[in-house]
Amino acid sequence: MTDRDMAREAAKKRVQELKGYYRHIIIFVIVNGTLVLLKTGVLNSLLPETFPKESYYYDWINANILIWAVILLVHTLIVLRHKFTFFKKWEERQIQKYMDEDGEKVDKYK
Fold it and tell me: Where are the bilayer-spanning segments (predicted)?
């Protein structure tokens, strides 16, 4: 496999990752938007008479949105991991710092 083929495969994988992420956002907005509309009573006219309409019945919706938002945040961090180079640069700086310190200790005893 050539370098070009490997780069193409990596790019293809990245595009699939982004498509999955955007799909996750769309589903989050649709599902949780519908749940909020249900909780606020906007959709009451569309519901059957036997469907519970008391506000306490929908208290779980806030927890659902919060948990799902945390999951979406984690998904965001995973997908955008290439954008967060701060940690990698920090790690490289720390390694260099300790290598320099060790080099000074070795030179000190020569």
Answer: 21-40, 60-80
Provide the Cα torsion 26, 30, 31, 36; round to 10°: 130
Q: Would you kindly state where each structural domain of the chain is located, as residue ranges?
A: 3-79, 84-110
The residue assigned the tokens 């180079």 is 85
Distance between CA atoms of residues 88 and 91, nearest Å: 5
Structure tokens that stand for 6 in this block: 């490997």
41 HSE (CA, 13 A, CB side): 4
Give dist(CA 53, CA 73) in Å, integer: 31
Task: Write the pLDDT tens digit of every residue in 30-69.
Answer: 999 999 998 888 888 888 888 887 777 888 999 999 999 9
What's the token pair of residue 35? 């749940």
- Alpha-helical regions (H) of the chain: 3-40, 60-79, 86-108
